[in-house]
Write a structure and sequence with these properties.
The structure holds 2 protein chains of 2 kinds. Chain A is mostly beta strands. Chain A contains 8 helices and 62 strands. The longest helix of chain B has 26 residues. By secondary structure, chain B is mainly alpha-helical. Chain B is built from 18 helices and 6 strands. Classes of the chains: A mainly beta, B mainly alpha.
Chain lengths: 1003, 498
């Protein structure tokens, strides 16, 4: 008799339900609740231990006792099931380009939002956060995005609920709404044959997020907590007080009298470093004044159980407290989730219930304003002024007395900006669904699936100022005494309430038939319907200042007293899909969808999107049956069309196709006491933007023990009827530029995923994973136009850097080529005459792309006994970023650009951070490619080291780990950060380096 | 499936709008007038038209940019992507966004009017006859600006509104004839008196007079007699009188001035725009050299200054100006500024004009971010000087003695010396129009009518891109058609020289 215990290698937990069979017989048993088994067995027989999702182990019985077995999760088997939209397929049966990133691949360290788990892990998926704030928007692009003004973000589906693109007010990152600790895996659908079934919102790819499930075994608990410290480096090389004093003396001698403060005028404990002509010079590092060493903690508890032995259950609670490195940028979140996955009626009815609740509390700071002011504020001024005459609650501000009439603020204190305002943005969100999956008992080949989803949120935003807040500083109109003619307006300044209610319903019937040993060995057919409704309803309370008293008063708009807004988008679809498997190695998939969108008029409402794919399981061919090298090899061919309609966020609004009148704001009246009623532009001809994608892919798994596996995809994508904001024929529409279906873009690229596991034994596993992708998207037609302006304002009013131009990547910078002297210094306003007509004008500009062609990521994981080490890296080659700080603070006149008795800090001209040959940036200097820098970089995302104590807790495990996130960045870029989604690096919220210590306890 | 027909709540269809607000028509008409002063309906940061910066997109701002900065009197120093080319009357090209902003704004007002005229066809409104006439006037005013600035365009009316095929190009004469016929059609219909800010007979007459006095430029055929007919109507029947206080016409209490025939309205709280008088007041102020509060402003944009092309008409130095009895000579800020504009980008070169201000004429009023001073789009002294010019040009029904009276009324109101008949020449009128009307959005048109804008017979600082001024091509009498217009409508052709 053989007896023993089967445990999971990952956490040393006993595993119930493991099959123990004697090889070649039908004799066997399963492990009990404690993972124990007992089985009659003869000498020399082979025990086979198998469990779904784990590698099978075989042990020859030679009388040893006990036989304790540790089995290992099989990565390739876990991947086996791939979610593809309205169902799942086995990985080997998948025909589209699908990446799966599961928990073992996730980034480690301080993870506040779900996108951080995924960053750098999948080829062709570029995630660029908008900065280092805890709620920074992630900006996700799969294969670059093909649209000009319509949505370019992928569709995100969380447990069967497609999330709306409209974030609740107060939420910048929709992926903070799921606790990262609850995530089981991401499925990323990239090519059209994979995304087509999600149709109307899937043109930019789909990210399907699945949360962890309950168990069919005994209860399991997990507790994890981590604590992080975040800090940032020195940032831009601005001048300190002494350098700035020297600089003003040398370059702006007439302004020396504006350095520092008049002796005795300010009361502060800060050190006076110098006294110059009766002026006290301080040395303030304004960046240091507004930043802090921030702490973040995450605490999660989850329980998995099989309720009543029938209902697998998982519940979790999580609490996150995250600070941004800019002061008062605080974020708090409480999450709760429940998942139930019972099977009823002899397992014919499978129910999947998910409910997630999130409470998020944020203090939204004006980080852009504060970071900009911290760069520009004269470093010879103090931070504080506690003198009695100070009006601003102890903060130093530079004032101008305007001819003894009013003390006007000419330079405002960035710390006061952060401290004197609070803006709580509180969001409650519920995300839930119920899915019924019923297999017809009389016809087991047929099943019906119905899914109801609800995504509802309520937001409340307030803005309040404290006493003496400079932002509420107003003048009394009828008071001419400069010493008393001002008032402050503490208290509520803004209020917004918003409710988002998104409902989804989808249902389908699926017929699956297995035909053993036939030419067609399996087919399935599926048809269904999907309904999505997005409603966003809110109102605002706005204030204005009375012109005479300076007091805050309600800005009342009679025609719309609550400043209400109300937006609805409705999408409905019918879809069908068929899969056929021939000779167990040729797999065909075909699908068709009809999609309707409420954004278009009835005549243009429906789009029809077909897709087809073929996969050839090469290793099933007889000539490879005995191959020792090739374990798995599959060739995939895919073609498909997808549609795009979402213009709500950018140019079209929610009702772009019908004539409507809008109500003007209270500050935009013309005849007194009458609101403006404006005829809104509309375009009744709007219809679907369509993308055709061709994809060839190869999946492979070579040599033993998963030594080398990976996939390679090449794609080409054509988008037509682009929804773009374009000039209209003058006089023939209700504005000069409106969204229309114009033009085409073309993308091509490839993606390579490689996983190498050179060492894989009981004690030591070394694995190396990497991905590389190339994407080039080009505008190929704009319906007769050659160019459309695409924003990117620099200095001054309305100077736009970016354009969409035929033959160029979308949103390319349009710039002059700088001329340099023999020493390599730029000659201001001297540009290369690119077209050779001896004249420098607009026609000499050229295009430079902002998005990179090449992105990559790689990671190295080592497990040695109880130690684990993981690291991940990410980067891009090419792409350009406009260094706005170099423009704005990199010319010598900028220190005294406006001589309102104030000076502006500048980049350090003495150590090469800026070049003093540039005195001013008048003329076209701002369009010089001198300021456009290569954005190639390599970032280490994180390094984590963990140790697992198996003996510390009975029947459990205890893992302790330390991690560092963003420890280093390698780049030649000279500004704040080359990883920039918008292409202009301006007042960038720095991404911190985060040190984390955490524990993870399973019991 | 019916849910695909989503219904807005805060935006309304025309029927819903008329049903929900009995004063809806006021808001609809107000909307059309506002296109000349406001940038958009949702606060000063909104814009009706797509423009890089919303604040730049107002009609009045476009008029000041193209009519005043391009001429002899006013210069701007910002250099914003294309403004230098206006201020130096050089290197104009089709990509300059300021041409586009003017063009697109005019062709915003026009279809808005067409759309409303179509709606008026469908629904019944109180006072419909006047509302139709006002709408047609506003459309004609927009077309007048196209005729004056670009010389051609498309003729979009309520008849072809909604057509998606690009319209054919309409020549300057076609547009002239259309505007003339429209104004002649509404002139007998529209009310003779109206609430402040709305068009009436004399506002229409004023536009007719402007159209005819420039007819030689627009069509090659002078129409002096017709111009005189309508100027006289304004003077004799309109009931307007010169304001005894010149400064009041440009102050926040100018809504009580008897001189203003047609104002563009502004209010500090309820009618905010970066493109109405706020642009003129704030743009002309700078806390570098001036006390803002004295002019009732909270912000100075350090932008516009006059040049000696304007204040040189009052004297050759700051001292001359302060010694002059002419009130109009005192409306320049000279402290800390140089008489000569050796570098137009240098704020202290040239005197800022302080003609417009946010304070009331008695100096009262607290500093505000947005001006409450209405812009005097048409005013009586312009009509007086037009009469004098027409008399000199020999228009039927005019007399030199009346002309002299009107000119001296204008001058003596500002404490300037009266002139004699022998002084009354076209050159004098052009100069007097400068002293009286500069920075009121018409200087370029005046110079072209007097044939002084292009060529080298009259030069001013920075004309042609040189500090002392140089000759420019006759092509500069018209601006280039914006590249975007040419791209969006292939029927359009470029003006010569661009």
């Amino acid at each position: 008799t053989a007896t023993g215990t089967v445990t999971d290698k990952a956490n040393a937990m006993p595993l119930p339900g493991v099959n123990v069979i004697i090889k070649g017989t039908t004799r066997g048993t399963v492990t009990d609740f404690d993972g124990k088994y007992s089985l009659e067995v003869s000498q020399g027989e082979v025990l086979v231990f198998s469990y779904v999702g784990y590698t099978t182990q075989e042990i020859v019985f030679n009388g040893q006792s006990p036989i304790d077995v540790t089995i290992v999760e099989d990565a390739s088997q876990l991947d086996e099931v791939v979610l593809i939209g309205y169902g799942s397929v086995k990985k080997e049966d998948a025909t589209g380009s699908v990446d799966v990133v599961s928990s073992k691949d996730f980034n480690q360290g301080s993870i506040v939002s779900t996108d951080q788990l995924l960053s750098g892990k999948a080829a062709g998926v570029r995630i660029t956060t908008s900065g280092g704030s805890p709620d920074a928007a992630p900006n996700i692009r799969i294969r670059g995005g093909s649209s000009l003004n319509a949505q370019n973000s992928p569709l995100i589906v969380i447990d069967g609920v497609a999330i709306g693109n409209d974030n609740p007010a107060g939420v910048s990152n929709p992926l903070t709404l799921v606790n990262p600790n609850d995530i089981e895996s991401f499925s990323i659908l990239k090519d059209a044959s994979a995304t087509a079934i999600y149709g109307s919102r899937a043109s930019n790819g789909v990210i399907i997020i699945t949360t962890k499930k309950g168990t069919s075994g005994g209860p399991q608990y997990n507790f994890s907590t981590d604590y992080s410290i975040s800090s940032i480096g020195d940032g831009l090389d601005m001048m300190n007080g002494a350098e700035f004093t020297r600089f003003i003396q040398e370059y702006h001698p007439s302004e020396v009298g504006n350095l520092g403060v008049a002796a005795g005028s300010v009361s502060t404990s800060e050190t006076v470093t110098n006294t110059l002509n009766g002026r006290q010079i301080y040395n303030t590092n304004w960046r240091d004044a507004i930043i802090r060493t921030a702490t973040t903690s995450n605490t999660n508890f989850s329980a998995r159980a099989n309720l009543f032995d029938k209902v697998p259950f998982r519940g979790s609670v999580g609490y996150t407290y995250a600070e941004g490195v800019v002061k008062n940028d605080d974020y708090e979140r409480l999450t709760m989730s429940v998942k139930l996955t019972p099977k009823l009626l002899n397992d014919n009815l499978k129910i999947d219930v998910n409910a997630k609740s999130i409470f998020a509390f944020k203090n939204a700071i004006d980080s852009d304003g504060a970071i900009g002011e911290a760069l520009s504020f004269d470093p010879t001024k103090p931070v504080y002024d506690n003198s009695e005459s100070n009006r601003f609650g102890g903060y130093y501000l530079t004032l101008d007395n305007d001819g003894d009439a009013f003390s006007r603020i000419t330079q405002s204190n960035p710390l006061a900006r952060l401290e004197q305002r609070e803006r709580p943005e509180n969001v409650y969100r519920f995300l839930g669904n119920v899915e019924f999956d019923y297999t017809m008992p009389f016809l087991p080949e047929l099943k019906a699936v119905v899914n109801f989803g609800l995504d509802a949120s309520g937001s409340k935003i307030e803005e309040r100022f404290s006493d003496n807040a400079f932002e509420t500083y107003q003048f009394e109109g009828d008071n001419t005494d400069i010493n008393t003619n001002y008032v402050f307006n503490p208290g509520l300044n803004y209020l917004e309430n918003q409710r988002i209610t998104n409902t989804t319903l989808d249902g389908y019937l699926q017929y699956t038939k297995l035909l053993n040993n036939k030419f067609i060995d399996k087919y399935d057919l599926q048809a269904g319907y999907s309904y999505q409704n997005f409603k966003n309803d809110g109102n605002q309370k706005r204030y204005q200042y009375n012109l005479v008293s300076g007091q805050r008063e309600i800005a009342f708009n009679e025609a719309n007293p609550n400043n209400r807004y109300y937006n609805v988008l409705n999408l409905q679809s019918f879809f069908a899909r068929g899969n056929i498997s021939i000779l167990e190695r040729y797999l065909f998939t075909a699908s068709i969808r009809a999609d309707g969108s409420s954004l278009f008029t009835e005549d243009n409402r429906w789009g029809y999107f077909p897709a087809a794919a073929l996969a050839w399981q090469i290793n099933e061919e007889s000539f490879l049956a005995d191959s020792k090298v090739i374990n798995n090899m599959k060739l995939r061919l895919g073609w498909g069309e997808t549609g795009q309609q979402d213009i709500t966020g950018t140019v079209g609004g929610y009702y772009p196709s019908i004539p409507l009148f809008s109500i003007g704001d209270s500050n935009s009246q013309y005849f007194p006491n009458s609101s403006l009623y404006s005829a809104e532009p509309f375009n009744p001809n709007l219809t679907w933007e369509k993308t055709t994608t061709y994809n060839i892919g190869l999946d492979f798994d070579l040599f033993n023990n998963g030594l080398l596996s990976g996939s390679f995809d090449v794609y080409k994508r054509y988008t037509r009827d682009l929804l773009a904001d374009a000039p209209v024929p003058p006089g023939q529409a209700l504005t000069n530029s409106f969204v229309d279906n114009i033009g085409k873009t073309e993308s091509e690229g490839f993606e390579l995923n490689l996983n190498l596991t050179p060492i894989n034994n009981d004690n030591l596993t070394v694995s190396l994973g990497g991905n590389l992708s190339y994407n080039q998207t080009e505008v190929t037609d704009l319906n007769g136009l050659t160019v459309i302006n695409a924003g990117g304002t620099l200095r001054g009013t309305g100077a736009e850097l970016f354009r969409h131009a035929v033959g160029e990547p979308a949103t390319s910078a349009y710039i002059y080529k700088q001329v340099y002297d023999s020493q390599g210094n730029p000659i201001p306003n001297a540009f290369v005459d690119l077209n050779g007509d001896n004249e420098i004008n607009d026609n000499d500009k050229y295009y430079a792309q902002t998005a990179p062609n090449w992105t990559y990521g790689f990671n190295l994981n080592v497990n040695y006994k109880n130690w684990d080490l993981s690291s991940s890296f990410r980067g891009q080659v090419g792409g350009n970023v406009y260094n706005f700080a170099q423009l704005n603070y990199g010319f010598t006149d900028s220190a005294a650009f406006s001589s309102q008795n104030n000076l502006t800090n500048v980049l350090n001209f003495y150590d090469g951070a800026a070049n003093p040959v540039i005195e001013n940036v008048n003329g076209n200097m701002q369009f010089s490619d001198y300021y456009l820098e290569d954005a190639t970089f390599l970032r280490c995302d994180n390094i984590a080291l963990g140790y697992r104590f198996n003996e510390l807790i009975k029947d459990g495990s205890f893992r302790l780990y330390a991690a560092v996130t963003n420890p280093f960045l390698i780049t030649d870029y000279s500004g704040e950060d080359p990883e920039n989604f918008g292409g202009i690096d301006r007042n960038f919220y720095p991404r911190p380096t985060v040190y984390t210590l955490g524990v993870n306890i399973d019991f | 499936v019916d849910d695909l027909d989503t219904k807005p709540i805060t935006e309304l269809s025309l029927e819903e709008l008329l049903a929900s607000d009995p004063n809806a028509v006021e808001g609809l008409v107000s909307r059309l007038y506002s296109t000349f002063a406001l940038t958009g309906p949702s606060g000063p940061g909104s814009s009706d038209i797509d423009s890089p910066d919303p604040g730049e997109s107002a009609f009045l701002r476009a008029i000041i940019n193209l009519q005043d900065f391009t001429a002899d009197a006013m210069k701007n120093r910002w250099g914003d992507d294309g403004l230098d080319q206006l201020t130096t009357t050089s290197d104009w090209d089709r990509n300059n966004k300021f041409f586009k902003l003017f063009y697109d704004r005019a062709y915003y007002t026009i279809p808005q009017c067409n759309n409303f005229l179509q709606a008026l066809d469908v629904a019944d409104f109180p006072d419909e006859e006047n509302i139709i006439a006002e709408t047609r006037f506003l459309r004609a005013l927009a077309y007048y600006n196209i005729i004056d600035v670009f010389g051609k365009g498309v003729l979009a009316t309520e008849v072809n509104f909604g057509q998606t095929q690009p319209l054919p190009e309409a020549s300057r004469i076609e547009l002239f004839n259309y505007v003339e016929s429209e104004l002649l059609a509404i002139e007998p219909v529209i009310r003779t008196t109206s609430s402040y800010g709305r068009a009436n007979t004399y506002v229409v007459d004023m536009l007719l007079a402007k159209l005819y006095i420039n007819a030689e430029v627009y069509t090659g055929t002078p129409r002096w007699d017709d111009a005189a007919t309508y100027v006289k109507k304004v003077i004799n029947e309109g009931g307007y009188s010169l304001d005894s206080n010149f400064v009041r016409i440009f102050s926040s209490d100018n809504n009580s001035s008897p001189e203003i025939i047609f104002p563009l309205l502004a209010e500090s709280l309820t009618s905010q725009s970066y493109g109405n008088t706020t642009y003129i007041v704030n743009g002309s102020l700078s806390s570098d050299t001036m006390p803002l509060a004295q002019f009732g402003a909270t912000d100075g944009w350090t932008g516009h200054r006059a040049s000696k092309g304007w204040y040189g008409l009052f004297g050759n130095s700051a001292e001359d100006l302060s010694a002059s009895s002419d009130v109009r000579a005192s409306l320049f800020w000279t402290t800390g500024h140089n008489f000569e504009m050796s570098d137009y980008r240098e704020w202290t070169d040239g005197f800022p004009s302080i003609k417009f201000r946010n304070t009331a004429s008695d100096g009262s009023g607290s500093p505000v971010a947005f001006s409450a001073t209405d812009f005097p789009f048409y005013r009586l002294s312009d009509a007086y000087l037009m009469y004098a010019e027409l008399a000199i040009r020999g228009a039927a029904g005019t007399s030199m003695s009346d002309a002299l009276t009107y000119v001296n009324d204008v001058r003596t109101r500002s404490n300037a010396d009266a002139i004699g008949t022998s002084d009354l020449t076209l050159d004098f009128i052009l100069d007097e129009r400068a002293r009286e009307l500069n920075l009121e959005g018409m200087r370029r048109s005046d110079l072209i009518r007097f044939n002084k804008f292009t060529g080298g017979s009259y030069i001013w600082p920075w004309k042609g891109g040189t500090a002392s001024g140089s000759s420019i091509s006759n092509d500069y009498k018209l601006f280039p058609i914006p590249a975007t217009a040419l791209q969006a409508n292939p029927n359009l052709t470029q003006n010569p020289g661009y």
